[in-house]
C-alpha cells in the first residue's frame, strides 16, 4: 500500500503586474527622497539669502580674504522685481498691502498719540475752568508775575536795561505806543502827522526794525521827531525853571530799533539780512521770535543783557512785553494809548475825548461826563488839578469792542480758534456769545496799562499759544474769565469796555457788510466847528454812533475801499511835503 503525503504549494513566479507595482513604489520612495533633499536645499538658501537684500562685495585685494556683505533694504519700487531675480517667488500682493497698512497704522497711531496729548492738555485746562481753577472766582484775586521774573536771579534781581535808539522818554507826558516794525515811510508819516494835527504834544513810542533794516527815509524821519522839545527843555533848564513839566509844541518820537531772532514755522532761521520782507514779521507775522537784552542777566551789577527766557513766539504776542517796559517809563498821572500803527489814523486827541453816557455795553456804570484827562486827574470834586500836585488819580483801563451786530466770538472762526487753542473748548463755551474786544487798541492810565500788559505777558507764559492772533484770544479771555477785573480791582483800578463807535477808538473791521458811506459812518462835512476843524481839506470824516462826534482814532481804516483811498491819498501828500522840507537840508 502506498503511503500518501500532503503536497506543498510551489512558489509562483512573479507576474508582470507585481514587477510594475514594486517599481512604482521604489520610484515614489526615490522621488520623496529627492524632494526632501530639494526642500532642505531650498530652506538653507532661503535662510542664508534674504529676499529683500542686495550684496555689496568688497574690493578684491590680497588683504581682504573674504567678501563682506551689507544688508541694504531695497526701495519699495523695485522690491518685488528684485526678489524674483533671486530665484524665489515674488512677494504676494496681499503681503505688500499688509506691510503698507501696518506702516500707515503705525503713523496713524503716532499722530493720534500727539493729538491725544494736546487734547489731554486742553481737557486739563477745561477741567480747571469748570472747577474755577483758571477763571477767577468772586473772591479769588489772580497773580500775574512781572515779566522780568522769568529771568533766573542768581545774585541780583534782573532789571530792565532796554534803552531807546532815538529820543528819550518824558515821564510826565501822555504817550501813544505802537509796534511798527518793517514799514515804509508813509506809515510813520501818516501816524505821526495825523496825531500831531490833533494838538497832541506827548510821546509817541515805536518799536521799529533794526537800523540796517529801516526802509528809505525812515531813520531820518524818526531822528527828526526824536529831538522835538529838547531845545525848549534846555531853555527852561537854563532859566532855572522848577516845573516838572516837559511839554512842547510838538510830539516827540521815541524809537526802539530792535533786532529779533526769528524762525519760520518750519523751524528755519530767518536771516536778518535776507530779502524776505519785514524780517521778524515776514509773511505777515507768521514767524516765531526771541528778543535778547531786555533785562540784566541777574548775575552781577554790570547790566549784561540776558538771553530771552521765553520760548519763541509771534511778535504780536512779544510786543506786550515791550509795552510793559515802556509803561514803566511814565508817572501814574500819565495816560497811555496802545494802537496798531499800520491801519490807524487820528482825527482828534484821544486823551481829550469826552465819552457819551451810553458808552458801555452794560458791564460798568457810565463814567462822569468829563474828558479823559480830567477823569485821570480828577481830585473827587470834579475839578481837574495839575500833574505836579495831583495826589488822587483814577486808575482805569479802557477797552474797545468790534461791531457786535456783525460778529461775536462764536461767529468769528478766528477768535473762537484762538481762545480754544489757548484755553480749551470749555473756556470757549463760557464766552462764545460775548462781543469781540479788539486787542489792537487799548487805553488807560499808566498804572492800569502796566498791569494790563503784565497780565497779557503772563497769558503766553501760561498757555504757550504760538498761533498768530493768540494775543486777541488772551485779551478777550482775560477780560471775560481770566481774572483781569479782580486783578485790577485789587490795585484800585476799573475797567471800561466801550461799544464799537462809542469810545475814543472806532474799530471798523467788522463793518464790511456794506460801505461805511452807506452806513452813515463815513461822511463829508463842510462845517467849521470845533469838533471837526482838524479834518483834512477833503472834508471826509468818520463819525461815532451819535453822528455828531468825530471818532478820535480810526482803527482798521483799510477795510473800507473809499476810506482806504482817502487816507492813502492823504499819505502821499504828507510824504511829499516831508521830503520837500528836507531837500534843502541835504543840498
Structure description:
With 587 residues, the protein is of the alpha/beta class. The protein has 15 helices and 15 strands. The strands form 4 sheets. It has a 7-stranded mixed beta sheet. A 3-stranded antiparallel beta sheet has the order 5-4-6. Strands 8-15-12 form a 3-stranded mixed beta sheet. Strand 1, helix 4 and strand 2 (203-209) form a beta-alpha-beta unit. It is globular. The N and C termini lie far apart (172 Å). The model is unreliable at 1-7, 42-90, 103-138, 358-370, 379-392 and 528-534 (pLDDT under 50).
CA-atom Rg in angstroms: 39 Å
Continuous helix count: 15
SSE order: HHHEHEHHEEEHEHEEHEHHEHHHEEEEEH
* Unreliable runs: 1-7, 42-90, 103-138, 358-370, 379-392, 528-534
Short overview:
It contains 15 helices and 15 strands. It has helices spanning 16-48, 79-85, 93-130, 185-196, 218-226, 230-238, 282-285, 315-327, 372-377, 413-423, 425-431, 446-463, 470-480, 484-489, 561-583; strands at 175-179, 203-209, 252-258, 261-264, 269-270, 287-290, 335-339, 344-346, 395-401, 437-445, 493-498, 505-507, 522-524, 540-542, 553-555.
Amino acid at each position: 500500500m502506498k503511503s500518501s503525503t500532503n503536497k506543498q504549494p510551489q512558489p509562483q513566479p512573479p507576474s508582470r503586474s507585481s514587477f510594475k507595482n514594486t517599481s512604482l513604489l521604489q520610484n515614489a520612495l526615490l522621488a520623496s527622497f529627492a524632494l526632501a533633499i530639494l526642500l532642505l536645499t531650498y530652506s538653507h538658501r532661503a535662510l542664508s539669502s534674504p529676499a529683500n537684500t542686495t550684496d555689496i562685495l568688497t574690493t578684491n585685494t590680497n588683504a581682504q580674504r573674504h567678501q563682506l556683505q551689507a544688508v541694504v533694504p531695497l526701495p519699495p519700487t523695485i522690491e518685488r522685481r528684485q526678489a524674483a531675480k533671486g530665484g524665489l517667488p515674488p512677494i504676494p500682493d496681499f503681503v505688500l498691502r499688509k506691510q503698507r497698512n501696518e506702516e500707515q497704522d503705525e503713523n496713524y497711531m503716532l499722530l493720534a498719540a500727539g493729538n491725544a496729548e494736546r487734547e489731554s492738555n486742553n481737557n486739563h485746562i477745561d477741567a480747571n475752568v469748570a472747577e474755577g481753577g483758571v477763571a477767577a472766582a468772586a473772591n479769588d484775586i489772580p497773580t500775574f508775575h512781572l515779566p522780568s521774573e522769568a529771568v533766573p536771579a542768581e545774585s541780583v534781581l534782573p532789571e530792565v536795561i532796554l534803552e531807546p535808539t532815538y529820543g528819550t522818554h518824558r515821564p510826565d507826558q501822555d504817550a501813544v505806543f505802537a509796534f511798527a516794525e518793517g514799514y515804509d515811510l508813509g506809515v510813520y508819516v501818516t501816524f505821526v502827522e495825523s496825531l500831531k494835527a490833533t494838538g497832541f504834544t506827548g510821546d509817541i513810542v515805536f518799536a521799529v526794525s533794526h537800523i540796517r533794516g529801516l526802509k528809505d527815509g525812515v531813520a531820518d524821519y524818526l531822528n527828526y521827531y526824536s529831538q522835538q522839545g529838547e531845545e525848549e527843555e534846555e531853555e527852561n533848564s537854563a532859566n532855572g525853571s522848577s516845573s516838572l513839566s516837559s511839554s512842547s509844541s510838538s510830539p516827540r518820537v521815541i524809537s526802539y530799533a530792535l533786532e529779533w531772532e526769528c524762525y519760520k514755522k518750519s523751524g528755519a532761521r530767518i536771516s536778518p539780512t535776507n530779502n524776505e520782507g519785514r524780517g521778524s514779521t515776514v509773511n505777515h507775522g507768521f514767524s516765531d521770535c526771541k528778543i535778547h537784552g531786555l533785562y540784566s542777566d541777574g548775575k552781577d551789577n554790570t547790566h549784561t543783557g540776558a538771553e530771552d527766557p521765553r520760548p519763541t513766539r509771534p511778535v504780536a504776542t512779544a510786543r506786550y512785553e515791550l509795552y510793559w517796559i515802556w509803561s514803566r517809563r511814565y508817572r501814574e498821572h500819565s495816560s497811555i494809548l496802545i494802537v496798531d500803527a499800520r491801519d490807524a489814523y487820528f482825527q482828534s486827541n484821544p486823551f481829550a475825548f469826552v465819552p457819551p453816557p451810553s458808552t458801555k455795553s452794560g458791564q460798568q456804570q457810565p463814567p462822569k461826563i468829563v474828558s479823559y484827562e480830567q477823569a485821570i486827574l480828577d481830585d473827587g470834586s470834579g475839578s481837574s488839578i495839575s500833574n505836579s500836585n495831583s495826589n488822587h488819580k483814577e486808575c482805569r483801563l479802557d477797552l474797545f469792542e468790534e461791531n457786535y451786530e456783525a460778529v461775536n466770538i462764536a461767529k468769528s472762526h478766528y477768535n473762537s480758534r484762538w481762545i480754544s487753542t489757548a484755553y480749551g473748548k470749555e473756556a470757549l463755551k463760557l464766552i462764545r456769545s460775548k462781543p469781540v474786544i479788539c486787542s489792537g487798541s487799548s487805553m488807560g492810565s499808566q498804572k492800569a496799562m502796566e498791569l494790563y500788559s503784565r497780565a497779557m505777558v503772563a497769558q503766553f507764559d501760561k498757555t504757550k499759544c504760538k498761533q498768530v492772533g493768540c494775543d486777541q484770544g488772551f485779551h478777550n479771555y482775560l477780560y471775560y474769565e481770566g481774572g483781569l477785573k479782580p486783578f485790577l480791582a485789587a490795585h484800585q483800578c476799573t475797567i471800561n469796555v466801550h461799544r464799537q463807535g462809542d469810545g475814543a477808538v472806532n474799530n471798523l473791521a467788522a463793518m464790511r457788510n456794506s460801505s461805511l458811506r452807506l452806513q452813515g459812518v463815513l461822511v463829508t462835512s463842510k462845517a467849521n466847528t470845533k469838533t471837526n476843524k482838524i479834518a483834512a481839506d477833503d472834508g471826509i470824516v468818520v463819525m461815532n454812533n451819535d453822528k455828531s462826534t468825530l471818532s478820535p482814532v480810526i482803527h482798521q481804516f483799510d477795510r473800507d475801499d473809499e476810506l482806504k483811498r482817502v487816507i492813502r491819498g492823504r499819505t502821499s501828500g504828507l510824504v511829499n511835503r516831508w521830503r520837500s522840507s528836507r531837500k534843502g537840508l541835504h543840498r
